[in-house]
């Protein structure tokens, strides 16, 4: 596929859809599996549900590293692809894969050593903390596969191939979604069965992406110089991601201090939010690839046209998800647990969840534009500002004033709105559209 040029609106929309729709399935597959896992475990009782909430929040650190790898690799590969050098684009994937293997091994080791103290810090209930630690030690074994898949997604998106990732990720997660209830109930493994199913999906997916990279017949030797450049470029994404992780970990910690029912409802709401956010991020994936390729080809006009179009598509998609969420307010919590106390807490979360989605559609689309442009320094600064000046003060004040989940989710809404303002200001300016194969 050639880099984008000045095209009519219909052609551009079809190009965005051709990249976004397969990416949507890839992005939604992992959180959809987590939702299935949450529903399966939720019927074991409050303690297992709270354990998955805490353990899953810790595992989101690995997902965060994976997102950094995928996004950083997409931007670099897309610019090189746009400049007409596909070989160099694939080479970015090779070095990202070495980085994924090293990071994955380190995170597995840390999970085995520190699962108990970390889960005890996050969960007020001792039984939930112990169950979370057991789940985490097993689930962490899937981290190398998760990161290999992220690196693979990154370079494939950069060369505008979103179909193979669709087959790899969807197949592995469907297998795991079938395996999870079988291991939890008929096999009698309970909570640990869900962790094993998680490891199977992530390891299989990572293996498929590694196989695809080997088939490219690119040199597979590690290049420390390229890896260092990727790390330097990813520094701002790392800091930005750290701000997100501080927010999610703090939100779970505060919710846990309002009781087991509250943290269970928060887990349901947060996983649904992650699912919707990652689904909306499909438009951002298209933006990363198309904006990066356009700027790599020296076409600022096409890059700006992509930015305008994906912003509009993101807004429409956000409204659509909000309408679906509002319609499911009285039904969806029951999919995850029959506990009435959790349902009552979920009713507090739901209006915030629905109200945030239209704004989130625009936020995630513009995130993709700036990541594709390599303008991650600005993303770092504005995310830190939104976290430190909005989200974190709001939720810890909610804890101090005993405002419950309403206070926690007010903080999430404030975080989203502050980011929206910063992104709109940048989008209307000229400093993000830097031309060339590298930035």
Automatic annotation (TrEMBL):
Subcellular location per the Swiss-Prot or TrEMBL entry: Cell membrane
GO cellular component labels: plasma membrane
Membrane topology per record: Multi-pass membrane protein
Record-annotated membrane-spanning stretches: 16-35, 47-71, 96-115, 135-154, 166-185, 191-214, 237-260, 272-298, 310-336, 348-366, 378-399, 405-425
GO molecular function: antiporter activity; xenobiotic transmembrane transporter activity
Family annotation (Pfam families): MatE
Source superkingdom: Bacteria
Keywords, comma-separated and alphabetical: Cell membrane, Membrane, Transmembrane, Transmembrane helix, Transport
Major localization listed first in the record, in broad terms: membrane
Membership in a protein family: Belongs to the multi antimicrobial extrusion (MATE) (TC 2.A.66.1) family.
NCBIfam families in the record: matE
Protein name in UniProt: MATE family efflux transporter
Species in which this protein is naturally found: Actinoplanes auranticolor
């Amino acid at each position: 596929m050639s880099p984008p040029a000045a095209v009519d609106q219909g052609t551009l929309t079809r190009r965005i859809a051709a990249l976004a729709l397969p990416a949507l399935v890839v992005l939604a597959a992992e959180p959809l599996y987590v939702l299935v896992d949450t529903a399966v475990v939720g019927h074991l009782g409050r303690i297992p549900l709270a354990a998955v909430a805490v353990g899953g929040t810790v595992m989101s650190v690995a997902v965060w590293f994976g997102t950094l790898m995928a996004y950083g690799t997409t931007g670099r590969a897309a610019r090189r692809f746009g400049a007409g050098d596909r070989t160099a684009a694939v080479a970015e994937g090779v070095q990202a894969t070495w980085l994924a293997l090293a990071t994955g091994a380190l995170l597995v080791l840390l999970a085995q050593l520190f699962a108990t103290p970390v889960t005890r810090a996050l969960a007020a209930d001792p039984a939930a903390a112990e169950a979370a630690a057991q789940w985490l030690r097993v689930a962490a074994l899937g981290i190398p596969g998760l990161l290999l898949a992220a690196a693979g997604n990154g370079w494939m998106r950069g060369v505008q191939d979103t179909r193979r990732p669709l087959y790899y990720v969807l197949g592995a997660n469907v297998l795991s979604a079938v395996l999870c209830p079988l291991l939890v109930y008929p096999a009698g493994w309970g909570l640990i069965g869900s962790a094993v199913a998680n490891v199977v999906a992530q390891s299989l997916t990572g293996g498929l992406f590694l196989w695809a990279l080997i088939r490219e017949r690119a040199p597979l030797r590690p290049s420390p110089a390229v890896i260092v450049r990727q790390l330097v470029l990813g520094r701002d994404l790392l800091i930005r991601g750290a701000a997100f992780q501080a927010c999610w970990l703090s939100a779970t910690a505060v919710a846990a201090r309002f009781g087991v029912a509250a943290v269970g409802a928060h887990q349901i709401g947060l996983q649904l939010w992650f699912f919707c956010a990652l689904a909306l991020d499909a438009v951002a994936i298209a933006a990363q690839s198309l904006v990066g390729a356009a700027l790599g080809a020296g076409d600022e006009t096409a890059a700006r046209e992509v930015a305008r179009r994906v912003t509009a598509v993101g807004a429409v998609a956000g409204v659509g998800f909000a309408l679906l969420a509002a319609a499911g307010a009285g039904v969806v919590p029951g999919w995850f647990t029959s506990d009435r106390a959790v349902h009552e807490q979920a009713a507090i979360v739901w209006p915030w969840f629905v109200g945030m989605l239209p704004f989130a559609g625009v936020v995630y689309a513009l995130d993709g534009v700036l990541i594709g442009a390599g303008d991650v320094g600005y993303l770092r600064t504005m995310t830190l500002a939104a976290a430190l000046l909005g989200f974190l003060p709001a939720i810890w004040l909610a804890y101090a004033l005993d405002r419950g989940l309403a206070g926690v989710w007010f903080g999430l809404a404030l975080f989203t709105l502050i980011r929206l303002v910063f992104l709109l200001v940048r989008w209307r300016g000229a400093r993000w559209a830097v031309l060339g194969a590298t930035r």
